[in-house]
């Protein structure tokens, strides 16, 4: 059989290229630390590795989302802590203002302190995160959620939605609370609040109401006590019922509630009792009522009674607002704890994906696998050198050497 020089060169070059390719492949395995460098090395493992790598990437994205959620919740928790301290300070100021030993000037000084707390609360309610978004505006987070009108009153212009973030494949977590929930609501467990009518002309004051019997069939209803003064006799009715004689300082029991009235009411004076959720639930309106009564001198008995009743109502409303803020703060803490749990689960999942990917791609950190690849590398190196030597020998073959 006659073999041409061209055929001899082509076969030798093909063998050289093949050995060079195998040698390069094993070298890439050592360089990358993986057995499967190209899909052709192990198509099935490479296909599964793509899926595992995608799952690993998604797990990383959820981890980043949890970092963002934790930052938002931590900022909210910090603001709510300040809000709770402000409400507690306001309650302390109102207790001071309730003392009969204070003069109008003293109460005006208390009002100055209270106004400072009020301004601080407005600032906290309009707090922003690190990206300039307002924490408590719901989806309307580009502008301040609480705005002040021309008369000085504060109103909420945000919405009732809450921003949410997906922190895992099956969990979407609220990362903020809207301002209405925090500053214009009370907890569902809040009790009753009493409030005297604005136009009361007498000097009757109230203490309470206190809950004494929640099993009363009328418990949970609203009650209005109206006073009638005729022919020197003072009576009262509850929700328009039968008149009953009024006794100064004696408690009135109705619907499982007890309220103590003192002083002398005028005709058509009234006091209303209702669940806190049906009365004023706006923390800023509570401050506005307190400031109005403390900054206004009280010269008559009726004005002093109105001031005392307003302070009593304000303190009850402050208690309810503080309970509500603490409840929201507890919810934020629970969500932060949930993030810790999901973080732990996510870390374990990431570890499993990483180990699975390592097994599929043939991680050379395994000593047995590394030794196998190094042995193959040495073998391919010897084969490549043999192919080169054979090519040199074949290339040098000539008939002239036989003459």
UniProtKB/TrEMBL annotation:
It is found in: Bacterial flagellum; Secreted. It comes from the Bacteria. Gene3D superfamilies: f41 fragment of flagellin, N-terminal domain (1.20.1330.10). Residues 3-140 form the Flagellin N-terminal domain. Keywords: Bacterial flagellum, Cell projection, Cilium, Flagellum, Secreted. Its main location: other. InterPro entries: Flagell_FlgL, Flagellin, Flagellin_N. The keyword Metal-binding does not apply. PANTHER family: FLAGELLAR HOOK-ASSOCIATED PROTEIN 3, FLAGELLIN. Belongs to the bacterial flagellin family. This is Flagellar hook-associated protein 3.
């Amino acid at each position: 059989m006659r073999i041409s020089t061209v055929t001899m060169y082509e076969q030798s070059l093909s063998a050289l290229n093949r050995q060079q390719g195998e040698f390069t492949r094993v070298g890439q395995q050592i360089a990358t630390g993986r057995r499967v460098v190209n899909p052709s090395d192990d198509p099935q493992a490479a296909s599964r590795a793509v899926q595992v790598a995608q799952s690993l990437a998604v797990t990383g994205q959820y981890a980043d989302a949890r970092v963002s959620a934790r930052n938002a919740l931590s900022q909210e928790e910090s603001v709510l802590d300040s809000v709770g301290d402000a409400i507690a300070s306001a309650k302390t100021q109102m207790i001071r203002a309730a003392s009969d030993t204070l003069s109008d000037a003293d109460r005006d000084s208390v009002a100055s302190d209270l106004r400072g707390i009020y301004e601080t609360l407005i600032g906290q309610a309009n707090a922003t995160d690190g990206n300039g978004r307002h924490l408590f505006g719901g989806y309307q987070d580009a502008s301040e959620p609480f705005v002040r009108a021309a008369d000085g009153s504060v109103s909420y212009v945000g919405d009732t939605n809450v921003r949410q973030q997906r922190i895992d494949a099956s969990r979407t977590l609220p990362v903020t609370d809207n301002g209405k929930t925090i500053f214009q609501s009370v907890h569902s467990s809040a009790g009753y609040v009493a409030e005297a009518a604005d136009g009361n002309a007498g000097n009757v004051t109230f203490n309470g109401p206190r809950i004494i019997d929640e099993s009363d069939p009328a418990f949970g209803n609203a009650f209005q006590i109206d006073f009638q003064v005729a022919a020197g006799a003072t009576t009262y009715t509850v929700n328009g019922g039968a008149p009953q004689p009024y006794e100064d300082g004696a408690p009135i029991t109705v619907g499982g509630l007890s309220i103590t009235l003192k002083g002398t009411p005028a005709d058509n004076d009234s006091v209303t009792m209702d669940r806190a959720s049906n009365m004023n639930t706006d923390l800023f309106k509570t401050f506005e009522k307190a400031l109005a009564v403390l900054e206004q001198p009280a010269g008559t008995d009726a004005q002093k009674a109105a001031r005392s009743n307003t302070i009593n109502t304000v303190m009850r409303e402050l208690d309810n607002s503080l309970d509500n803020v603490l409840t929201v703060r507890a919810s934020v803490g629970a969500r932060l704890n949930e993030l810790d749990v999901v973080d732990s689960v996510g870390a374990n999942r990431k570890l499993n994906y990483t180990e699975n990917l390592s097994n599929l791609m043939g991680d050379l950190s395994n000593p047995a696998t590394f030794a196998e690849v190094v042995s193959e590398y040495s073998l391919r190196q010897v084969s490549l050198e043999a192919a080169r030597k054979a090519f040199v020998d074949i290339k040098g073959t000539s008939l002239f050497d036989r003459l």
